């Protein structure tokens, strides 16, 4: 990982504390009573020793106070260092953003939404200026009764000139014509909000029932005990990757150490890398394991069509695939435990209708920074609640794209991998479900992987995860309607799986909290209720955090961050729904290359290993000879420039931050306390994200 900016956040990595250990020493040559001392006679007589430890306890108490004071001083010093380094870091990012804007051309992702937010911000600033002028002039009339939306209009003799008359006309116009559309839109969003909250509550109740009854898929007996006569099926392991030099070694190593007969499984390393140096590194790693007797092959595509789906489709077209019964897929940053196949493959035994067994993800860097902690909350809820409940009660859920075992027959009968969308995992899972195949989710089988540590990587990942489903929904809606499945399954797919959880959630979250709420500050006649902006969101955040109880201290940052990320999800949803340019865009999520939670230096070692000279030597496994690769200087400089990481400025989030802070200022004039605090903290949250201060800090 690249060095930081000196912004040592107190919410970063956990402080490792030692575990108290009681050591009992049993030695016949030593005894406590044999040691002469002031209390020896009392000990021999069995009497309690004299209370002479009061001074010692006072000293210990003093040392505890000093240690706590030292720790508090360290925290204050860290905060001071953060605030000291913050202005220069923000200034550098603004300069970098200005230079990038001067060099760049065309419109970036979400430019239409950005223009809308800028226009809304300009109108808000203008409205705030008018309201402040009216307030200082004494024209700001309050409603005598909050239950009555009408305003008291002054008499003719009370009007103080044309400006006062214009302001009164504006107040009457907004109360008669602007209030009603806002109230209608807010009530629609509140209805969607309540429906989505009820769906979340039902999922949590289902998860509670599963825990209460201890419901989970089980393997009958121990099929791998001696003398059981278990016949190991043929298993194909696929590791698709693309320019992922940080993680290729650990993923290949973990797959090669799977506990399965070596003549019963084959590993395909599916490399789509465009960098020749990374290709050579992966070939060398494959060659190393081949010499150790592992059945592993290296495949590289010259034309990277169809992204990951095209890569998997090309690998499944090999002639030897017909000899295998199951296929396991691991992304490049996944590290399965050696017993992964023994915990998953037996679930297919005696269940010919099972097409997929999905394992859970576990994260090696969940405590790296605030961003990874908040991601861990979302993904724990996804696996612990959504996937588990759908797997137990519906035998269907969305394939997560990795850490899953497919029956090859199910893949073939469902049409195989298609290159029509960037969510190929959801595509194949839906088609398999429509063909009658059932899925199993194993919540107790976990596979280590990484979370994006920078906001840029996480933002791009979320864009693909939310634009892809909407793009795919346009393609599969007719197939769902005409499928030969029950009506309630069709309703579950269309209304819950797609509309409610993929479309409605980002729509109402952005519209309600980023558009309607600040708008009601300038149109106070259409005020939102407190329970909408406070009580229900806090309760829903509480339910989301239940699967990861260690994250309860982060419930408020989690609530604010979810609303902050709604602008990215909303933009991605529109992109996929209306088939805009970025709906079919795949950007590989950056990895740091951690193999465990305690692995602090792996990323640096990977960078050193990958940042090689333009001229270097590696041994090819095919020819067994030493081959020299000369990378042109221009190309080498370009590669190093492309891979350079830096924190950025996100204009859309900054614009929304200014909008919400402007609305918070306006709310003070109406004495709306809870609205002011919500808008203030939400505006600060957008500001922190817009300045890229939430994730990995890079110098």
Automatic annotation (TrEMBL):
Keywords annotated in UniProt: Cell wall biogenesis/degradation, Glycosyltransferase, Golgi apparatus, Membrane, Transferase, Transmembrane, Transmembrane helix
Gene Ontology CC, one term: Golgi membrane
GO molecular function, one term: glycosyltransferase activity
Transmembrane segments: 71-91, 112-136, 493-522, 528-546
Tree of life domain: Eukaryota
Example GO biological process: cell wall organization
Domain Glycosyltransferase 2-like intervals: 327-536
Major location category of this protein: Golgi
UniProt topology in membrane: Multi-pass membrane protein
Entries under PANTHER family matching the protein: GLUCOMANNAN 4-BETA-MANNOSYLTRANSFERASE 9, XYLOGLUCAN GLYCOSYLTRANSFERASE 2-RELATED
Similarity comment text for this entry: Belongs to the glycosyltransferase 2 family. Plant cellulose synthase-like C subfamily.
Protein name per its UniProtKB record: Glycosyltransferase 2-like domain-containing protein
Native source species: Urochloa decumbens
């Amino acid at each position: 990982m690249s060095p930081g900016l000196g912004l040592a956040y107190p919410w970063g990595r956990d402080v490792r504390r030692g575990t108290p250990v009681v050591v009992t020493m049993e030695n016949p040559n030593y005894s406590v009573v044999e040691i002469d001392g002031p209390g020896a006679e009392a000990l021999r007589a069995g009497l309690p020793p004299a209370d002479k430890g009061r001074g010692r306890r006072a000293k210990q108490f003093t040392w505890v106070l000093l240690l706590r004071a030292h720790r508090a001083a360290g925290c204050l010093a860290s905060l001071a260092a953060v605030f000291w380094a913050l202005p220069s870091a923000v200034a550098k990012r603004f300069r970098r953003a200005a230079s990038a804007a001067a060099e760049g051309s065309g419109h970036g992702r979400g430019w239409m939404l950005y223009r809308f937010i800028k226009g809304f911000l300009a109108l808000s600033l203008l409205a705030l200026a008018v309201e402040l002028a009216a307030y200082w002039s004494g024209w700001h009339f309050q409603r005598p009764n909050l239950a009555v939306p009408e305003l008291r209009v002054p008499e003719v003799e009370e009007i103080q000139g044309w400006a006062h008359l214009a302001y009164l006309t504006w107040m009457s116009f907004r109360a008669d014509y602007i209030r009603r559309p806002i109230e209608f839109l807010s009530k629609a969003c509140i209805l969607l909000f309540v429906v989505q909250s009820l769906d979340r509550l039902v999922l949590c109740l289902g998860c509670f029932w599963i825990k209460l009854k201890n419901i989970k898929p089980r393997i009958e007996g121990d099929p791998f005990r001696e003398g059981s006569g278990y016949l190991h099926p043929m298993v194909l392991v696929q590791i698709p990757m693309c320019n992922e030099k940080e993680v290729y070694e650990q993923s290949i190593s973990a797959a090669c150490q799977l506990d399965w007969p070596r003549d019963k499984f084959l590993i395909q390393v599916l490399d789509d890398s465009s960098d020749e140096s990374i290709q050579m590194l992966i070939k060398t790693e494959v060659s190393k394991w081949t010499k150790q007797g592992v059945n592993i092959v290296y495949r590289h595509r010259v034309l990277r069509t169809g992204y990951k789906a095209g890569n998997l489709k090309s690998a499944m077209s090999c002639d030897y695939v017909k000899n295998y019964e199951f296929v396991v897929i691991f992304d490049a940053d996944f590290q399965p435990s050696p017993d992964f196949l023994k915990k998953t493959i037996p679930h297919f035994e005696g269940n010919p209708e099972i097409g997929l067994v999905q394992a859970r993800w576990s994260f090696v860097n969940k405590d790296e920074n605030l961003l990874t902690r908040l991601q861990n909350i979302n993904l724990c809820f996804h696996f612990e609640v959504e996937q588990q409940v759908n797997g137990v009660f519906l035998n269907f859920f969305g394939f997560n794209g990795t850490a899953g075992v497919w029956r090859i027959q199910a893949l073939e009968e469902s049409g195989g991998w298609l290159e029509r969308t960037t969510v190929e995992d959801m595509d194949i899972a839906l088609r398999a479900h429509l063909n009658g195949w059932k899925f199993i989710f194993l919540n107790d089988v976990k596979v280590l992987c990484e979370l994006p540590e920078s906001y840029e990587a996480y933002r791009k990942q979320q864009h693909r995860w939310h634009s892809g489903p909407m793009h795919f929904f346009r393609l599969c809606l007719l197939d769902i309607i005409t499928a030969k499945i029950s009506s309630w399954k069709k309703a579950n797919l269309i209304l819950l799986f797609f509309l409610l959880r993929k479309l409605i959630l980002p729509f109402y979250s952005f519209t309600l909290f980023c558009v309607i709420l600040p708008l009601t500050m300038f149109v106070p006649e259409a005020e939102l209720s407190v329970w909408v902006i406070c009580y229900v969101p806090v309760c829903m955040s509480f339910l989301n955090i239940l699967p990861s109880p260690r994250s309860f201290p982060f419930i408020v940052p989690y609530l604010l961050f979810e609303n902050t990320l709604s602008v990215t999800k909303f933009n991605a949803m529109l992109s996929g729904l209306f088939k805009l340019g970025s709906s079919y865009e795949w950007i590989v999520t950056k990895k740091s290359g951690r193999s465990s939670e305690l692995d602090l230096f792996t990323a640096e070692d990977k960078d050193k290993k990958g940042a090689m000279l333009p001229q270097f030597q590696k041994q090819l496994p095919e020819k067994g000879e030493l081959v020299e690769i000369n990378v042109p200087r221009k190309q080498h400089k370009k590669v190093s420039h492309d891979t350079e990481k830096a924190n950025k400025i996100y204009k859309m989030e900054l614009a929304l931050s200014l909008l919400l802070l402007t609305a918070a200022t306006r709310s003070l004039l109406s004495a709306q306390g809870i609205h002011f605090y919500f808008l203030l903290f939400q505006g600060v949250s957008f500001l922190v994200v817009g300045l890229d201060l939430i994730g990995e800090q890079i110098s």
